[in-house]
From TrEMBL:
Keywords: Cell inner membrane, Cell membrane, Magnesium, Membrane, Transferase, Transmembrane, Transmembrane helix, Ubiquinone biosynthesis. Coiled coil: none annotated. It is a multi-pass membrane protein. Its EC number is 2.5.1.39. The gene is ubiA. InterPro entries: HB_polyprenyltransferase-like, Prenyltransferase, UbiA_prenyltransferase, UbiA_prenylTrfase_CS, UbiA_sf. The chain crosses the membrane at residues 38-58, 106-129, 135-150, 185-205, 226-246, 252-270, 282-303. GO terms for biological process: ubiquinone biosynthetic process. Catalyzes the prenylation of para-hydroxybenzoate (PHB) with an all-trans polyprenyl group. Mediates the second step in the final reaction sequence of ubiquinone-8 (UQ-8) biosynthesis, which is the condensation of the polyisoprenoid side chain with PHB, generating the first membrane-bound Q intermediate 3-octaprenyl-4-hydroxybenzoate. Its cofactor is Mg(2+). This is 4-hydroxybenzoate octaprenyltransferase. It catalyses: all-trans-octaprenyl diphosphate + 4-hydroxybenzoate = 4-hydroxy-3-(all-trans-octaprenyl)benzoate + diphosphate. PANTHER family: 4-HYDROXYBENZOATE POLYPRENYLTRANSFERASE, MITOCHONDRIAL, PRENYLTRANSFERASES. Signal peptide: none annotated.
Length: 304
């Protein structure tokens, strides 16, 4: 009888990386997750929403390009740092066992040199943002390096990840208006609680492996109480994204999309199953729609 156990390996062979990139490039593309763009979208979409809100309309093309590249590069940097730090753990985790560094496709020295090149490319973007935003960008770097270590000593690595992943929202405001008002901070806090929620769902995929390895996560902190915690984080997200709409004077369409986000969260919570890692993986990816709804709501609330 065929096994019904889902394949949680996060690398798909015979994909575009395998088909179109030179063999020597493939491990680096997978190291920085170019083949798995979900994390990039989850970083970028809230940032685009913040650019729209700060501009009160469509951002300039240059600013949009700079922040898109920034999201791509810093997410890639975060992935490389994570794999360097976790190279001795990943081989024991079903989802990560075939990643390039832990499987020996590249060496630690090669990964570090690649990381330096990524940081250098990200640093070039500093020339295209204002001084306020540059300082915020510099403040982000330690968080990117601290996050992979958090799972060794705290059950809340998802909090650190949420702070770092959504930092671009604050920079979108600082670069557009040279200020970070209360409404922007509340929106960012909402993105942090949103990320704690969806990354907790993701963490349930690895919970058994993490427990055996002595690693920590919010999934291991919440265990069977996960649904109650997720309700709290998603409810906080809706509130923290709705209140700034009033503070910024957004139009009625923004609140329609907030309702749509609330319904999407309800669907996630209704279908969430702690005992089903495959479903947790799918629900994590479904949060791209949350980001899309936030962008659409920001456009509707500011342009109409």
């Amino acid at each position: 009888m065929a096994s019904t156990h889902p394949d949680l390996n996060d690398i798909r062979h015979n994909d575009w990386v395998e088909q179109y990139l030179p063999a020597s490039w493939r491990p680096y593309a997978r190291l920085c997750r170019l083949d798995r763009p979900v994390g990039t979208w989850l970083t970028l979409l809230p940032c685009i929403a913040a650019l729209i809100q700060a501009q009160y309309g469509l951002p300039t093309l240059l600013r949009l390009v700079v922040f898109c590249l920034g999201a791509l590069l810093m997410r890639s940097v975060g992935c490389t740092v994570n794999d360097i730090c976790d190279r001795n753990f990943d081989k024991h985790v079903e989802r990560t066992r075939f990643r390039p560094l832990t499987s020996g496709q590249i060496t630690l020295k090669q990964a570090i040199l690649f990381l330096v090149a990524q940081l250098a490319m990200a640093a070039l973007l500093l020339f295209f943002i204002n001084s306020y935003s540059r300082w915020l960008a510099v403040a982000l770097v330690p968080l990117v390096f601290i996050y992979p270590l958090c799972k060794r000593f705290t059950y809340w690595p998802q909090l650190v990840l949420g702070i770092a992943f959504n930092w671009g929202m604050l920079m979108a405001w600082s670069d557009t208006t040279n200020s970070v008002p209360l409404a922007a901070v509340l929106m960012w806090m909402g993105a942090v609680t949103w990320q704690i929620g969806y990354d907790t769902i993701y963490a349930y995929t690895d919970m058994k492996d993490d427990e055996q390895l002595g690693l920590r996560s919010t999934a291991l902190r919440f265990r069977d109480q996960g649904l109650a915690w997720l309700i709290g984080f998603y409810a906080a997200t809706v509130v923290l994204w709705t209140v700034p709409g009033f503070l910024l004077g957004f139009g009625w369409l923004y609140y329609v999309f907030m309702l749509a986000i609330a319904l999407h969260f309800y669907w996630q919570l209704a279908t969430f199953d702690i005992q089903n890692p495959g479903r947790s993986f799918a629900l994590f990816r479904a949060n791209i729609w949350t980001g899309c709804l936030l962008v659409a709501g920001s456009l509707g609330g500011t342009l109409l």
